[in-house]
Amino acid sequence: MNHFLIDSPTCISFSGGRTSAFMLWKTLEANNGLPKDAKVCFCNTGREAEETLQFVKDCEVHWNIPIIWLEYDLSDLKFKIVSFETANRNGQPFSDLIKKRKFLPNSVMRFCTGEMKILTIERYFKSIGIDDFETMVGIRADEPRRVAKMTDTKLMPLAKSGFSQSDVQSFWKTNNFDLQLTFRNGMTNLGNCDLCFMKGLHQISSLVAEKPERAVWWASQEELIGGRFSKDRPTYAQIIKFTKEQRDMFDQNEEAISCFCGD
Question: Is the pTM higher than 0.85?
Answer without folding.
Answer: yes
